[in-house]
Amino acid sequence: MPGAGSRGPSAGDGRLRLARLALVLLGWVSASAPSSSVPSSSTSPAAFLASGSAQPPPAERCPAACECSEAARTVKCVNRNLLEVPADLPPYVRNLFLTGNQMTVLPAGAFARQPPLADLEALNLSGNHLKEVCAGAFEHLPGLRRLDLSHNPLTNLSAFAFAGSNASVSAPSPLEELILNHIVPPEDQRQNGSFEGMVAFEGMVATALRSGLALRGLTRLELASNHFLFLPRDLLAQLPSLRYLDLRNNSLVSLTYASFRNLTHLESLHLEDNALKVLHNSTLAEWQGLAHVRVFLDNNPWVCDCYMADMVAWLKETEVVPDKARLTCAFPEKMRNRGLLDLNSSDLDCDAVLPQSLQTSYVFLGIVLALIGAIFLLVLYLNRKGIKKWMHNIRDACRDHMEGYHYRYEINADPRLTNLSSNSDV
């Protein structure tokens, strides 16, 4: 058939061309191969591809005391009795948990590595035994956003702990969330006794928080369960970006020295479980001036007397306090458990009658003064003879002295005696 005859020569020519091409390729490969038995990836594309697929880059090592997940970019070194930060942390780590260990000091550059831990965003150091955090402890962590130091008995928190070794020249910290819950040291570890030690502890924390401009980007700060009695003056002055502030479960008795005026972005302020008795008009006015703030005040021992009138009126009008319906009186006894929103101005009075405890104190003071007076009179009675003799001696001395003055007066008053005295002098 013509079609078959026409296809036969073309098919044979194609097979012949393929055979010749195969021979040429084999000759080129054999001619280009080096004399050495080791193949050269630079001259052989096949060898280059084979070597690239057979030798992938080695996986990052994981510290022996830790558990690592490269997929989740997480390293956990939990309850391993570590005394320091592991030196061989993988550079891919984004979330690092170093909790429940035995570290007592966090030195400067504790996380300095080569290559640096540039991707580390969340660092949890809670539940260790940290007593000291040195200046520049968190340097070389440019991506750090969340830091948790809770449940560490800190006795020395450097003023430059979050600001680098020198706050005046170091860049602002990248921190956005700082958790410092329950970092107060035990009472026997505080300096100068309990009250003075607490004041020193509050000042130490305040100094670290307002050091330079280091924490101007901080949006969340937790200081719960630290036994604070007062908020140090200007504690919040250098935290203009703050949105969430947690001061729960402290011992705050007043907010007189705290200023919230600069916290224009503040959204949540938690003051539950403190010792607040009344809030003054200056504090209420500052809260009312913040556009987005919500203040939580439950479980405080409010004293419902005449000083509470302004606060009660403010609570009835404001929407700043979401839990205001749960606020109740703790004192005086007759007002206990009454809701603040249920009080009228007639209910809020300061009784002229002294409280029973104060009456008892005055009675006790009167008894003590009477006893001292009785002892004084008894001493006078027992020494009455000596006192009488002493008084007679004083009387005689005074009489002699007065007689001398009288004699001189008589001489000066008589002209004859005066002339005689003058002649005798001559």
UniProtKB/TrEMBL annotation:
UniProt biased composition (Low complexity): 33-47
Keywords, sorted A to Z: Cell membrane, Disulfide bond, Glycoprotein, Leucine-rich repeat, Membrane, Phosphoprotein, Repeat, Signal, Transmembrane, Transmembrane helix
Keyword Iron in annotation: no
Spans traversing the lipid bilayer: 362-382
N-terminal signal peptide: 1-31
Pfam families according to UniProt: LRR_8, LRRNT
Start and end residues of each LRRNT domain: 61-95
Protein location: Cell membrane
Domain LRRCT: 300-351
Stored InterPro entries: Cys-rich_flank_reg_C (IPR000483), Leu-rich_rpt (IPR001611), Leu-rich_rpt_typical-subtyp (IPR003591), LRR_dom_sf (IPR032675), LRRNT (IPR000372), Wnt_signaling_inhibitor (IPR052286)
Membrane topology qualifier: Single-pass type I membrane protein
SMART domains noted in UniProt: LRR_BAC (SM00364), LRR_TYP (SM00369), LRRCT (SM00082), LRRNT (SM00013)
Keyword flag Cell membrane: yes
GO cellular component, as recorded: axon terminus; dendrite; endoplasmic reticulum; plasma membrane
UniProt superkingdom: Eukaryota
One GO BP annotation of this record: negative regulation of canonical Wnt signaling pathway
Positions of region (Disordered): 33-53
Function as written in the Swiss-Prot or TrEMBL entry: May function as an inhibitor of Wnt/beta-catenin signaling by indirectly interacting with LRP6 and blocking Wnt3a-dependent LRP6 internalization.
Protein name: Trophoblast glycoprotein
